[in-house]
Request: fold
Amino acid sequence: MAKKISKVIKLQEIIDGNDGLIQVAEVKKHIPFNVKRVYFISHMGYHSIRGFHAHKKLKQAIFCLRGNFEIEMYDGKWNGSNVLIRGEGILIPPMIWHVMRNFSDDCFIGVFASSVYKESDYIRNFHDFKRMLK
Ligand code: T46
Reply:
């Protein structure tokens, strides 16, 4: 079986009776880098595909805050897929091709990133990515 690039991590969840849910991510405890950017992804359709790229230097922690979705990662070989449900996340180190799909209708994703947005950090072509891995 392929060695997993990153294991599933869990947010701290505080279920506050009938008054709601608190989901907590702390740097060092849940996220092993300093966070420079936070963004949220929502309103996907079941057939949406996101990701489909790698980053040269960016580190990210991707959390499913509501619903569920599937993520696949490639670091020279495909490492199987992880279905993330509410409260679960995964760390994406640099130079990992990742693809996110099969989003539930209510899926809501929160991403913590180690850098501000830089298009120059993206590798969006899979053949270029495979060449750069060598
Ligand atoms: C990743 C996965 C998990 C910005 O202008 N600023 C931003 O901070 C972001 C995240 C995106 N954008 C623009 C860039 C593109 O024109 O929004 C457009 C779509 O971005 P992207 O192709 O990166 O979207 P995703 O959902 O495929 O990827 C995002 C992250 O960008 C990416 O780093 O790993 O989520």
